[in-house]
Amino acid sequence: MATQQGAPARRVTKRRAETRTRLLDAALEVFAEEGFGRSTVEQVCERAGYTRGAFYSNFASLDELFLEMWEQRSQAQLARMREIAEAVVRADEPVGTVVARLAGALPVDERWYRVSAEFTLHALRHPELRRVIAAREEAIVAAMVPPLLGVLARLGRVVPDPGALGRALVAVHDGTAAQCALEPGNPEVWRQRTDLFVHVVSAYSTKDTHQ
Known about the structure:
Elements: H1 2-34, H2 41-48, H3 52-56, H4 62-85, H5 95-103, H6 110-124, H7 127-154, E1 157-158, H8 162-182, H9 187-203, E2 206-207
Antiparallel strand pairs: 1-2
């Protein structure tokens, strides 16, 4: 009896998840084509094949929808970084080789870059939203640093200021994303991006003299 009573609830939950996924996918397409500031709830609903009611039963606004989109992408990247960090790392492996592998967990998607850059400008005009973005950036740094510290420890390196390293890596990612988006076919730009990640990690870490 309990199983029969619980089944409908699970179906509703699954349907709701599917609705949210379709709305998120449709929104990314609309944002990328129209620009975040020119996109409307109606356009997202039309692209997803839902009504405004379906949208507002899942998201309070396009701002909230974007933040959910960003959260999902961030969590996927962090999971990939942890997966790479947990792989076997030899103590004599060059720092550059390991960092290059970790940098692979932070791909540059030109469509996403356009949307996220526009949303950042939008947030800068709204103090409360700006605070939300800043808090989420801090949360990303806090989640990203521990696996990186673990890898560096295995390589015999320590980081005096983990927070500064995390913020520097975010700055490198955000800054080079624009360059890579502008010249997606230029291998030199991508090589320089990786080199910058390596230089930052090397600059913010030192050899562990206690080993």
